[in-house]
Amino acid sequence: MKLSPEQLAAFDRDGYLFFPGLFSSEETKRLNEAVPELYGRREAFNVREKGSEAVRTNFAAHLYSEPFARLARHPRMVEPVRQLLGEALYMHQFKINGKMAFEGDVWQWHQDYGTWKNDDLMPTERAMNVAIFLDDVTPFNGPLMFIPGSHKRGVVDAKHDVSTTSYPLWTVDNALIAQLVERAGGKHGGIVSPLGPAGSMILFHSCLVHASGSNLSPWNRVSVYLSLCAVSNHIRRFKRPEYIAHRDFTPIDCLPDDCLLRDCAVDLPWKDGMPPSALETSIDEARKAA
Ligand code: SIN
Ligand code: MN
Q1: pLDDT for 198-248, tens place per residue?
Q2: Residue 152 class from Cβ within 10 Å (0-12 exposed, 13-18 middle, 19+ buried)?
């Protein structure tokens, strides 16, 4: 899949591209069917919502689940990102976000690159976020919200919020959000939400400011978030465990376009469990050395 000059210009202007229904319902179904068993596992890689059993985020399924290992190498997802970043890519982070019916909590306003820079020492913003919907996304089940063009501001001030939700995040304060929304058009396009059927894909810039509200509807909003980073821009610090911020910088090799519908062989290095090293951080290393 090659992006047109119009799409490249729209990405530069808005900071995102939306591809409604890019994956077929059969492809999406194979992925979605694998989620309950993954969410059922009692492992560190499943982060649950505050005060609830509902999974907020499952990390690194591409290392232990066949359907998601195939998705991580899918040409419809990888090739446009490679085109935009102009370089081989590795997987920096892989999440299946639940945003479960009635229980899915908010994601405060943030830029992903803020976290990758502050926590992981990723040198520049040359990394891309990809969202793939495994459920239909409607105005009611906590859709992503973007401030179009906010990526042009580069990295903005953020503070480390470790209490609002169950997952620590570098978040942007309300005054700056109000300013960015006003500059993006205020009530006329200053906030947008790409809505669409399961199988839709969004590519969004790592500095695009985004958030999502809680899901009070009776419909899950499971989405996969793949964060692809240019190989030369790999992270320089391992402060977060490896299941959250990956340390294997091997370039992604794509599988055939129909890989989600047949048993393409994939490597599953964590299929028998995470290695103990995946839980260790550079802070543990420093403690051991001291
Ligand atoms: C994210 O920003 O990483 C997740 C947002 C969401 O799932 O709504
Ligand atoms: Mn994010």
Answers
A1: 999 999 999 999 999 999 999 999 999 999 999 999 999 999 999 999 999
A2: middle
Task: Count Cβ neighbours within 10 Å for each residue of 43-76 and write b for 16 or more, e otherwise.
Answer: eebbbbbeeeebbbbbbbbbbbbbbbbbbbbbeb
**pLDDT of amino acid 282:** 83
- Best substitution site from 223, 224, 227 to test ligand 1's pocket, by max atoms within 8 Å of Cβ? 223
How many angstroms does the Cα of residue 107 sit away from the middle of ligand 1? 6
Q: Which domain holds residue 160?
A: 5-289
Q: What is the CATH number of the domain that holds 111?
A: 2.60.120.620
- Mutation pick for ligand 1 pocket among 55, 192, 210 (CB with most ligand atoms within 8 Å): 210
Q: How far apart are CA 89 and CA 82, in angstroms?
A: 7
> Is the separation of the CB atoms in 58 and 39 below 8 Å?
yes
pLDDT value of position 1:
81
Q: What is the CA radius of gyration of the chain?
A: 18
Pocket of ligand 1, beta carbon within 6 A: 97, 99, 107, 144, 210, 212, 223, 225
Tell me the ligand closest to 100's alpha carbon: 1
In this prediction, residue 283 carries a pLDDT of 76
pLDDT at position 263 = 86
Q: Which atom of ligand 1 is nearest to the CA of 143?
A: 8
Number of domains the chain contains = 1
At residue 221, the pLDDT reads 98
Residue segments in the chain with a per-residue pLDDT below the cut of 50: none
How far, in Å, is the centroid of ligand 2 from the Cα of 6?
25
Question: Considering the entire predicted model, what is its pTM?
Answer: 0.96
